[in-house]
Amino acid sequence: MAQLNLAIVGHVDSGKSTLSGRLLHLLGRISKKEMHKNEKEAKSQGKGSFAYARALDESTEERERGITMSVAVAYFDSKNYKVVMLDSPGHKDFVPNMISGATQADAAILVVDGSNGAFEAGMKGGQTKEHAQIIKSFGVKQIIVAVNKMDVVGYSKDRFDEIKHTLGTFLLRSCRFEESSVCWVPLSAMDNQNLVSAPCDERLLSWYSGPCLLDAIDSFQPPTRESEKSLLMPICDVIKSSRGQVSACGKLQAGTLQNGLKVRVMPSGELGTVRSLERDGSQSCSTATAGDNVAVTLQGIDVHHVRAGGVLCDPDVPVAFARHLELNVQLLDGAQPMLAGSQLEFHIHHAKEAARVVKIAGLLDPKTLKVAKRSPRCLLAKQVAVVEVLLQGPVCVAEYSKCRSLGSVSLRALGNTVALGKVTRVIEEQK
Ligand code: GTP
Ligand code: MG
How far does residue 259's CA lie from ligand 1's centre (Å)? Predict the structure, then answer.
């Protein structure tokens, strides 16, 4: 069965963790005992409505604040897929964590809060649009829009249509999703309507005859995998055991891994040997292929050489390590103009560096991507341009055309994502 890495994204409090927890519960991934414990503890904290979210929000701080802070990974099986669910934080402060999850996604569920005022808050100044733009720019082409909390609006068709119209226009026109790749599902995570089976509430049943959420997930096109290419695995996390062993965790983006294989760990350039592999959280296996989420235990390498933000690659085909890059970027709606000299935060796979724009080489026509104006003085909101950036320290990087996950970037300033783009050229490699 194919694996599907599914990011759950959307504005804060739209119900992503509740939806994820409900799905896991309905599909038998949470025991009765565990659910009972979650309900009891949530109630005693005065956060009874967060019982399902607790399955994903596992840290004390997340539970006390009732918000997700880091991406939680959970697993379930649908008819067609082994689904790896990446429940992302919606809060503005944790967009960098959301980005790190988005780089691993094959498809996404964009959750919006359908209740009056909340959908509008997510659209205006909220994270609904930002998340949609981020996942699209990272190469996710297929999405489900889960219009959640329909219970609050009495399962109103008019409200659903209004949301579909407003957000749909943005997704198709500004983000450039294909209409046929966006599936709209009205539901209630709290009331368990339209999640894993057709709704039973008459008010929804009277006008909705489309797929339930689980069937919509099964309708995603299988993701293409790059198993034939050379090994690339961006390191998301590093686990060091008390016995001095080190494991690198992340999504295998290209190639295959097997026990005994020699790998080069960038940026240190040191070699290590795969001692053991785990897939889907804890299942040990002897091989893994592109698309798999794995933990790779390495031997023959000093633990200090294995770092989050680094990349595992083929010993003969090391990934570039560079500070000076050419990018193709789009400045987002509402962002301040970008000038040569602008200081930004540069995010790429699981790495982050301070960056300075050194040159705006040319403005591009957003439709044809042909140069419309050479050397403009600045880049304005919604414009697309070729820019050169210089990073404070080097990062592992590949051209987007060679590997989308190692070539997708986001630029942020003062806690906001200001531009999204692709690496088009590595100008100077670090030796
Ligand atoms: P962040 O991860 O912090 O961005 O939030 P989230 O999107 O994961 O939202 P979460 O699941 O934590 O839910 C936020 C609140 O919305 C909780 O109080 C939930 O009980 C409530 N909620 C979630 N789904 C529904 C729903 O379908 N109907 C109603 N009425 N409330 C819901
Ligand atoms: Mg959450």
Answer: 42
